[in-house]
Amino acid sequence: MKKNKLIGSIGVVTAAALTLVACGKSNNAGGNEGAKTASKFPIKTAVKPAKQGGTIKVAEETDTPFTGIFNEELQMSQIDADVTSPGQESLFDTDDHYKINDKGAATLKLDRKAKTVTITVKKGVKWSDGKQVTAKDIEYAYEIIANKATKSQRYADQFNIINGMAEYHEGKAKTISGIEMPDGENGRVVVIHCKELKPGMTNIGNGYIWENAAPYHYLKNIPFAKLESSDQIRKKPLFFGPYQLQKLVRGQSVTWVPNKYYWRGKPKLDKIVYQVVSPNSASQAIKSHKFDIAGVINSQWKQVKDTKDVTFVANIPLSYSYLAFKVGKWDANKSKNVMDPHAKMGDKNLRQAIAYAMNTDAVYKHYTDGLSFQIPTLIPAQFGDYFDKSNKGYTYNLKKANEILDKAGYKKKGKWRTTPNGKPLTINFMAMSGSSIQEPIIQNFIQQWNKIGLNVKLVGGRLTEFNSFYDKVQHDAPGVDMFLAAWSLSDEPSQTQMYSEGTMSNYSRFVTPENNKLIDEMDSQKAFDHNYRVQKFHEWQKYMNDEAYVIPAINSYSIRAVNSKLTGFSLKPSQRNNDHPLWYNVAYAK
């Protein structure tokens, strides 16, 4: 199950994150053999009798330290989510179609007529200090998200479906009136009163129901403004998942030991150690068995494919990379995106030409043997009929790119084109650092844009480190005109939490009446009719590709090299937590 969208790295394949570009130049000039092989790999390890004990090491492949925000309400980085995964667990389990069932830490009941969502925490679901998870813990998680002092980027206007949420967010109320605790704060039942229920609410990751809890008894004395930097979040977090944090080497490694109060029972492993490793060292680490679980860097596949004593487990995760154009800013006072009518990248013709000039499919096939591949729309094919398979997106076409710019008045003056009013045009492009092939891939795109007469320059003259990259993106740093980023998606396709007017995560900052209308319609009461909802998703994909504020780039196979002595490692939706295995099930085989 995957609850929320997370920002991801490009150029890094981690054990359980985005696998969008890889490192180490492939000798293949652009084949598809890697993809053919990966498609035959299992989605889980063989089921064998498990034994108690043992330590496993998990590789976190990144060229940057993790920030170490051990709280889901404040966490936005996929890297942080990875290293937190042994402790961090959702309230809800799902079936293999992402539908919430009753097998998790809490149950969910929807009453469309009464417009209520009832969450009941199971007795015995305890924090790692032995305290029962309570109704207040669920309410408190909403408060962390909605209180402006925390500066949580999880807040978006879709939460305003809850009665009183907007008033609390604006500081007009001290509590969220729509969250009721019928048995009191220490009870286990929460009733959420909504303006209406939405069609995706039966599925995990719907964006309207928060699917985690926060330990109120442990955090309540910390001012909201200081919560993210507190030791209780950064050094000594509490979780109700199978493991608890034992040791932290800041930015480099996390050691997890069993949570003796875990509600499903005692986990099998003695320790799980997440360790940061450079993507450029990943293939050697796999071949030397330095880690028990490691993500395969896609362009290094040929170097590791013959490794003995590992099981290769693969899937195509719900994720994608994208090129976005900055056309506005986030207004924190009004909690909404505001477009700049004079934005440099405000002309659709310019954006479309840039998209057509990208040889995305060819360059990624060249480096990854087909393991990374171009996608045509912002709805991945894994979402079934919500994906519009008739939409072909932006295929490489330099002639068309030039024609669009010529017709729009971007005339060449020497080597470079000018704006339609004759002024010099320099486009500042930001891309994050990562693997050894990230630089040549980015330079390839810049050369493609140069071919159509666009003077594109890297922000700062070089690739930007992951944490700095997202700091600039999230805070609308001046001097960034377009950027290449990535999403790890939630399991429900609603686009409200990523591209609506009232979500901070709409990093392009584009706002149009038509986009607002389509996003509202895909989650409207009419959208309880599946065919209607599918139609609106198809209309939205067509609109987004035409407007080209955000250009879909690639998705990839995600391959994990798993110690063949392990059992219980699975990426099936019913047996995972976010993009990670349910660590309770992972063990050494007898």
Individual helix count: 16
Q: Return the structural class.
A: alpha+beta
Helix content: 10-25%
Describe the sheet with the most strands: 6 strands, mixed
Low-confidence stretches: 10-29
**What is the CA-atom radius of gyration, in angstroms?**
23 Å
Give the termini distance in whole angstroms.
28 Å
**Can you give the mean pLDDT?**
93
> How many DSSP-defined strands?
28
Oligomerization category of the chains in this entry: single chain
Roughly what fraction of the amino acids lie in strands?
Answer: 15-25%
Shape: globular
Give the helix/strand layout.
Blueprint: E1 6-7, H1 33-38, E2 50-51, E3 55-61, H2 78-84, E4 106-111, E5 116-121, H3 135-146, H4 165-169, E6 179-180, E7 189-193, H5 216-219, H6 231-234, E8 243-249, E9 253-258, E10 271-277, H7 282-287, E11 293-295, H8 301-304, E12 310-315, E13 319-325, E14 328-331, E15 336-339, H9 348-356, H10 360-368, E16 372-374, H11 398-408, E17 412-413, E18 416-417, E19 426-431, H12 438-451, E20 455-458, H13 466-474, E21 482-488, H14 496-499, H15 513-522, H16 530-547, E22 550-552, E23 554-556, E24 558-563, E25 566-567, E26 576-577, E27 580-581, E28 587-589
Parallel strand pairs: 3-10, 19-20, 19-21
Antiparallel strand pairs: 1-21, 2-28, 4-5, 5-7, 6-7, 8-9, 9-10, 11-24, 12-24, 13-21, 13-22, 14-15, 16-23, 17-18, 25-28, 26-27
Task: Please provide a written account of the structure.
This protein has 590 residues and is an alpha+beta fold. 22% of the residues lie in helices and 20% in strands. It is built from 16 helices and 28 strands. Helix 9 runs antiparallel to helix 11 and helix 15 (513-522) packs antiparallel against helix 16. The radius of gyration is 23 Å and the shape is globular.
